Every structure is written in structure tokens, then in C-alpha cells.
Amino acid sequence: MSPVTTNTDVIAEAVRIVSVPKAAEADSFVLHAPLELMARVQLLQWLPHDRQRPALAMIERLADQYAACSPDVQTPLLVSRPPDAASLLAAVAAGQIDLVDSLATAWLPQWSAAEVVATMGEALAPSLGAAGHAPIGLAMLLRDARMPATLLRGPLRALATRPSWRISWHERVSGDGDPDGLYNALRAAPQLGRPGSDFIYPLMTQAVESGQAERLLAPLLADRYDVAQALRTVTRVAAWSMLYDDQSQAPYGWTHALTMPQAVLSLAGAGVLPRAALAVAATFSLGFRLAHGTVELPPQIEPAVSELTCGDIAAAASVHDDAHLVKYTLACFHAAAHDSEFAGLYLAAAAHLVGWWNHRAEDL
Asked: 63 with 102: CB under 8 angstroms?
């Protein structure tokens, strides 16, 4: 990276670097880099000024690693026509990767996060391309006006490589159900085990092709429901799973079980129809419980107490090199703010994951 002097300079330079996709198909590091960057920037608000320098150094390190990992894409062809979200989405759906990058390069700088979510959220939320992480990127953009929509350029390119990977079972379900049954539906999930892979697409495909998604979730779908309560349900289930279920799934399985459904439901009404948001978020939650759950959810999840504060947890996560830990910590903080009665549960879950990584380091 070029020399920088202020926090704003560090962040702006990292955004500039990470906004440019790589020519090769995105691996896990490249795919997560825009999300990791946004999460690291947003975690700074929980750190006192005198503890931010190490966290900023990790942002610089992320940008340096991204710049060095593989060649950038070639400069895309110039596009002169006015921004049109429908055209960009059509290019993604058709798998026209180069066209997607040209349109995204031209148009994303002209759109606010709210405009991107409003015009593209409904189409992007059900996608399982880019490891089903598009909603996380959209939700993070909405939470921080400093983050430009250009950070979606790489994720959009990744989505175009797998345009057929989508959650769509809910599109054939009509009528109003009872969303208040969401917790019981997740609690009724059988233990299917992992379908030979921990990747998002196989996990969610198992939930759909086994018939469990439609069997358990179709009776819940409705156009109007208490979105905030549904959000509390999926985040509580995820935090409980982190603390009390299969610990081998702590770093990736249970982190995704929180970040993915939380992001989708946070977009409900902002660009994603509430019915679709519930279907996709619930499928994410169910998919992880089906594959990774080994302990039955209790009749009722109870509040918990954390021995660590947000500042302690943020300080530990912000200097760790794992992207999932950073994203999960931020998601737990947002869950705690949204669901204050259970704030201790989310902080305990985040602290637990910090401890998991610390124990792993001690074992190496």
C-alpha cells in the first residue's frame, strides 16, 4: 500500500484495493475480503482511540494480502448508458461475467447502499453463489455510509459464475402461514449430518432436496409478520448453537448460522419482500441445524451472561486474522443491540469463539 497517515486514509486505500475483483475465480479469501474489510472498519467503533492502531494495521495487512494474492481483472470496457439495475441483474442471471464487471464498475459508484438494496436486494438475497454471502455485504453497506457500493463489484462477479444457485422452493408456496412457529420448526429439524461438504451450496441444497425446508418452513410463510421477532429467533438459535452444540462447527458452521440469516432478515422491507426474507433466512438457519446440529434445541432459549465486554471482544477479534471471527463478532454486537434482553447470550457466543481460536493457537 502507498503511505497513509490517518484512519480515513487507511480505510480509503483498503477500499480502493479490495474493490477491484481478481481475474481468477474467487477463493475463500478473495470472496470474503470485501466483507472482512467492512467488518474490520465497523468494529473500530467499539475500540477506544488508543487501541485502534493494531486494528488499523490488520486493515492494511488485509489490503496488502489482497493486492498480492493474484492478478486483478483487466480494466473493463467503458459503459456510457445511464445506470439500470435491471440490466445489471440480467447480466448476473445470464452469467455474463465481463458484462457484469463493466456495468458494476460504471454504475456502483453512482448508487448509495440504500439504492442498491432497494433495486437489487430481492434478486440477490436468495442467491447461493458467492457462498450465499451477498446479503451480508448488502446489510453491511446499509450500516455504514462510509463504505461505498463499489465493494460489491467482486461479489457480483462471483454471483455471475453460479447464477443458477438459488433458494427458490418458497416461490411455489402460496397462502399465509404462522411465522410465530419459526422456533418450533427449527427445533424439529432432524439431524441429517453433513452432505459430504461444509460449503454453503451443498448444505442448503440438502435442506431443500430432502424436503425438510418445505415441510418445516412452508407453514410459516406470510406476507406480514413480526420481522423483528423472526430476527431474534434466528439469532438466538445461532448463538445458542455456538455455545452448546457441536464445537467442531464453531469457526465456520455456527458463525454462518448467525451472519447469513441475520443479514437477510435485516433487509426485509428495505428491498427484500418480508415473505422472501423469511423463507431464505429460515432456510439458512434450518440448513445449518440439519447438517451440524447434534444437540436438540431446548424448549426455550434462556438469556446468558458474558464475562467479557464489547470492548474486550472487539479488541481480540480486530487483531485476529480470521475473517469469520471478525464478521461474527460484529454480527453478535448488532444482535445484542437489536435483542437487548439477550445481549449477554450474543456476547458470550462471541467471547466463546474468541476462546475457541485462542485454544486452537495454543494447540499448534
From this structure: no
How many whole angstroms separate alpha carbon 89 and alpha carbon 83? 12
> What is the number of other CB atoms lying within 10 angstroms of the CB of residue 28?
12
Look up cell 433466512; give the residue: 281
The C-alpha cell 447502499 sits at 113
How far, in whole angstroms, is CA 251 from its chain's centroid?
14
Nearest Cα neighbor of 72 from 13, 21, 129, 29 is 21
Among residues 165, 99, 100, 103, the alpha carbon closest in space to that of 130 is found at 165
Q: How far apart are CA 178 and CA 195, in angstroms?
A: 30
Q: What pTM, to 2 d.p., does this model score?
A: 0.95
Pick the range with the lowest mean pLDDT from 63-67, 76-80, 152-156: 76-80
β-bridge partners, 22: 72
Cα–Cα distance for residue pair 122/167, rounded to 1 Å: 12
pLDDT classification of 2: cutoffs 50, 70, 90: very low
- Indicate if the pLDDT at residue 256 is higher than 60: yes
Q: pLDDT, tens digit, for every residue of 170-225?
A: 999 999 999 999 999 999 999 999 999 999 999 999 999 999 999 999 999 999 99
Nearest one of 218, 222, 231, 295 to 258, comparing CA atoms: 231
CA distance 37 to 51: 18
Give me the residues paired with residue 166 across strands. Answer: 127
Residue 283 has pLDDT above 90, yes or no: yes
- Record the cell numbers describing residue 333, joined without a space: 454486537
- The per-residue pLDDT for 214 is 98
166 by DSSP, 3-state: which?
strand
Burial label for 39, CB within 10 Å (0-12, 13-18, 19+), is buried
Amino acid of residue 192: L
Cell representation of residue 272: 427484500
